[in-house]
Structure formats: C-alpha cells, structure tokens
Write a structure and sequence with these properties.
By secondary structure, the chain is of the alpha/beta class. It contains ten helices and nine strands.
Length: 247
C-alpha cells in the first residue's frame, strides 16, 4: 500500500536517480560485461538500468506493480533492450539456483521482515564465485540511538521495518556464508519536509516526526545529526554498501 502510493514521488527524488551515486555502486561491484544481473526490490529501476548500461542482461524484481510501471517507462526512455522487470517477492525468488552472476539490492533491506531469508534467497540464485551486493541505510552501533532512528523512520513510513547498524549489515551477510570483499560508506542529506512528502506522511504524524527530529537536533539522540538550512530541518542518512562473493 505505502509502496504503491510512493512509486511516483519516490522515483522523482533526486538522490535516488543520482547518476554519480549509481555509478559508485556499479564501480564497487565492477561487473563483467557478460554478467547476468538480478536487482532485488528494484523499485523504479534506476539500479537495474545502471547495470544494464554495462552488463549483458539485467532482471529487476519487485512486489509493487506501480514501481515496476515506472521502471519499465524508464527502460523505454533509455531504449535499453537488455533489461526486464517482473513482479515477485524477494522472500521466494522465482529463479532456479545459480542463475545470476551478480545479485544486488539497494535501499530495501530496512523494509524486510526477514532479511536473513531474503539474503539466503539472493545467495541461492547467485552462481558460486558470483557477487552479491547490498546497499542500505544504517543506524548507530548503539542500541538506544539505533532505536531512536528506527522509531522516527517507522513513524514517517510504516513500511520501514528496521535499519541495521554497519556491523549488523556485515554480520547478516557473513552469516549467509558470503565473503566480504569491500565496504563503502556514504551519506544522503535529507530535507525533512521533502522526505515526509515522498512517503505521504499524514500531517498529524509529521508533527510527531518533526518533534522527534527537533529533540535529536538538541540532544544528539540517534546519529541522524539534524541541522538547519535557512531554518529548514535537514538530517544525514548514513549508508553502507557491502560487496560480497558467494563461496
Ligand atoms: C525504497 S524502495 C528502493 C527501490 C530501489 N531498490 C532503489 O534503490 O531505488 C524499496 C522497494 O522495495 C520493494 N520491496 C520491499 N519489500 C519487498 C519484498 N519483500 N520483495 C520484493 N520487493 C520488495 C518495494 O516495493 C520498493 O519498490
């Protein structure tokens, strides 16, 4: 429900389509030109299409039809014939074992109820020696600060389940018997009002989110480090990209 309503505003968020950011992810993965790539929870398809520019074939899968419509229209605009998008759940990927050379997912893990199960699915469909890469928001390493961030995120968007800390993200990948190859940190500067417009946060809830961000601004409660630009509330989302090899 949330994802259906968010498809258009989300796809229009500049940081999501940012070419430099997409290029960083592709460079971190450094796929072979002959690679077959799967983008799990592909949303509006920016990651899938960035890989399609340099790889043989890319499949994007997502459970929200409205996101896939946006992805398909981006594909058509770019006239890329080696990318396709399909409806499906990450918990049960509709592919045989070891079908892909690269399996990637960006900004989706914090929505997943069962990240371990999904990572196991991503590993199952990746060939041995292939690459699995995850990029997501991360929280503080300190439980109370992480909980404060997750509380704000969940209020703003009920489809938020739980963002992990950097060490939590690494651990969940290592637990799936994946070899960590490289780790890249990043940052997304968010304008709080724009961020809540994207998720269509109702005004009554937005007031609570603002109040929590203001507490955080005054007392440094999460690591989001809220700050003002001409009076407007902003904060910093920290991100981590972890590139692994399947053993
Ligand atoms: C924040 S968007 C990220 C989209 C895209 N990966 C990107 O980086 O722009 C999260 C996406 O995850 C999808 N999603 C969430 N849970 C999913 C699941 N269990 N299976 C498949 N897709 C899922 C949603 O439909 C949504 O399109």
């Amino acid at each position: 429900m949330e994802f259906s309503q968010q498809a258009l505003p989300y796809s229009q968020t500049p940081s999501i389509s940012d070419a430099g950011r997409l290029q960083k992810l592709v460079t971190a993965v450094s796929p072979d030109a002959n690679a077959r790539v799967l983008d799990v929870a592909c949303g509006p398809g920016y990651v899938a299409l960035a890989f399609a520019e340099v790889c043989r074939e890319v499949v994007g899968i997502d459970l929200t039809p409205e996101m896939l419509e946006v992805a398909e229209s981006h594909r058509r605009k770019k006239a890329l014939t080696n990318a396709s998008f399909q409806l499906g759940a990450a918990e049960k990927l509709p592919f045989r074992n070891q079908q892909f050379d690269v399996v990637v997912s960006r900004l989706a893990l914090h929505h997943w109820e069962t990240p371990r199960r999904i990572i196991a699915e991503m590993a199952r469909v990746c060939r041995r020696g292939g690459t699995i890469a995850l990029e997501d928001l991360i929280t503080s390493e300190h439980t109370r600060r992480a909980s404060f961030q997750n509380r704000i995120e969940k209020l703003r968007d009920p489809s938020h389940t739980k963002a992990l800390s950097a060490s939590g993200l690494v651990q969940v990948l290592a637990a799936a018997r994946l070899e960590i190859v490289s780790i890249h940190s990043g940052e997304l500067v968010q304008d709080a009002e724009r961020w809540m417009q994207t998720s269509r946060t109702p005004e009554k809830v937005a007031r609570k989110v603002r109040a929590l961000l203001e507490q955080d601004e005054q007392r440094d409660l999460s690591g989001l480090t809220p700050f003002r630009v001409e009076g407007r509330l902003h904060f910093r989302h920290k991100t981590l990209t972890v590139v692994t090899h399947k053993l």
